Model the fold of this input.
Amino acid sequence: MAQGWTINAVGDTISFYEAPANGADVVVKEYGNSGSGGTNQWAVGAWSPRFGFPQEVEFYSDRLWFAATPTDSQTIWASVIGDYPNFGVSSPIVDSDAVSFVINARQVNTIKDLVPLDNLIILTTSGEYKLTGGQDDVVAPSTIGVKNQGNSGIGDVQARLIGESAIFIQEEGQKVRDLSYQFEKDGFRGNDISVWADHLFAGYEVKWVEYWKAPWQVVWFIRDDGVRVGCTYMPEQEVVGWHWHDTDGKYLDACTLPGKKESDCYYLVERVINGEAVQCVERQAPVLAPTEWDLWYVDCGLKYDGRNYTNTTLTLSADVGWTEEDEITITASSAVFSGATDVGDGFEIWRDVVTVEDGISITTRHKARMVIDSYVSDTVVKARSIGSVPVPLRGVAVRGWTFQRDTIGGLWHLEAKSVSVLQDAAVAGPFVVSGGQISLATPAGVCVVGLPYSCEVQTLELNAPGGESMRDQMKLAYKVSILLLASRGVKAGGINDKLYPVKERRFEPYGQSPYLKTGIFDCDIPAGWGVDSGRVRIVSDDPLPMEILSITTRAVASNGQAGGSSK
Done:
C-alpha cells in the first residue's frame, strides 16, 4: 500500500493515498504537541516543484554537475565521483564526496552554462569564472573554489566548444566572444571576435549557434531575422573570417552531427511555397562531390540520378542499319521502362574496350546516345541514335548506361518557384516548377534542381605594401588574377560595373561540359578612374563551385604607384 495520508482538521477526516484492503485494521493515534519519535536531523531538498530544478547540466572530472535553480541561481551541485545519482556526503567528509557551493560576487549572476575545458568554466549573465581545486586542480569538497576570468556575460544561447576554445554570445545578443586558456595569464582570456563584423549583428539577436567541424571549421549563427551568419574560426592559424548566407526564406534552427567525411549540418527553414508558409528540414550538401555531375550548389534541392548501379544490362539490335536514320531496339535484362511517358527520353550507353599496343594497355570508351521513339514493354523500346552506333556497342549486353529524362518530377516542395538546374554537369534553366515538375529542353541523366543563390566576394581597398598610402589616390583597376581551386562559373568586375566571365573552355571535346578549373586565371575588368575604383567584385551565380585561394588586383594610381592586393 502506498504510504501517506492527508488530514482534514475541520472535518476530522483522514484520506489515505491508497485505500487499505478490505477488512484491514487501521490504527490512528493522536499525539500531543511534543510529538513522538521526532528528530532534528532533516533537510529540505534543494530541487523540487516548489524551489525549481537546475537549468544547466554537464559532466566534468568524473562528476555530474548541475547549476542554477530559479531560487538558487548562483549555486552549483556536483555528484560523488563515479556515482552520478549520488549527492550524499560522508562523516567525516572525504574528497570523493558530493560538492555544492555558491558563487559569491558583487551582484547576483545567474549561471547560464558550464563549459568543460582545461578547467570547468562557469558562464554567468555578467561574468566568467574558472573552477579551481586542490593539487592538480582535483576538485574536492575541502578545496573547491572559483576565480573570475572576465565580466562579459553570456545570454541564453549555449556556448560551443571548438578545439581548446569556447564560443559564446554576450547577454545582449550582438557580440560574439571566444574564451581560451592563456599561458602568460595562467587563466582564461576572451576576445570579441565579431569586432570586424559588427554590421552582421547590429540590430539583430542570435538565436542559435552550431559548429561545423569538417571539412572547414565554421561556426554558424542563426539571427532572429532568419539569416545564417558563418565564422571560419581557426585560432591556431589566427584566422577569423565572417560571411553571411541568406536564402529564399528564413533559417529558424540548426543542428550539426558527426559524419564519415564531413559534418552533417541540418537546418529548419521556413519558405513560402505556392502562397503558403512551409517549414522544411534541409541537409547541407557535401562539399566534396565524387564527380562533376554530383555537384550540389542549390538550396532546397532534389537530385535525379539515372545512372545504372545494378546488374541490369542493355542490348542494342537493328534490323537494317546502325545510323541515326535507322530504328534500333533496346532490350533490357530486367524491367526498366514504364510506359508511353518514356517516349522522348533517352539513354547514354557506353563500353570500355581495352587494347594492347606495344605492350601498353589502352582503354577506349565507346559511347552512343539514344532517343526513345516508342514503348513496347517494360524491357523493350524502339529508339534512334544520335550519330552512328559504334561497333563495340552493337549486339552486346552492356552495364554502362544512364537513363536520361526530359521531365523531372517530385518537385512539389518547390511549386511555382523559379529553379536552377545542373544538368549532366552543365548549367540549365531557369525553370518554373508547375505541377511538381519541370520540362527540360534535352533529356538529362543526372540533374540537380533547386533554388538558385549567388556567391559574392569583394576585395578591400587597394594597398601597396611598403609604399605610400593609396586610399586617397585616384586609381584604375584594369585586371584581376584569381587563383582558383576546382571552380567554374566565375565572373569578375568592379564594384558597380558589369561582370565578365573568367574563361572556362579550353581543350574539352565536343559535348563535354567545361572541366573544373584549378590555377591562376586572369580577367580584364572594366572600371572607372576614381578614388574608390580599386575594389573588385567576384561573383558565382550558377549552381557551380567557386573556391578562391588568392586575389591579385592590377591597378595604377595617380601618384604613379602600381597597385596590387593579395588575399
Notes: The two ends are 77 Å apart (CA to CA). The chain has a mean pLDDT of 88. DSSP finds no helices and 40 strands in the chain. The first strand starts at residue 5 and ends at 8.
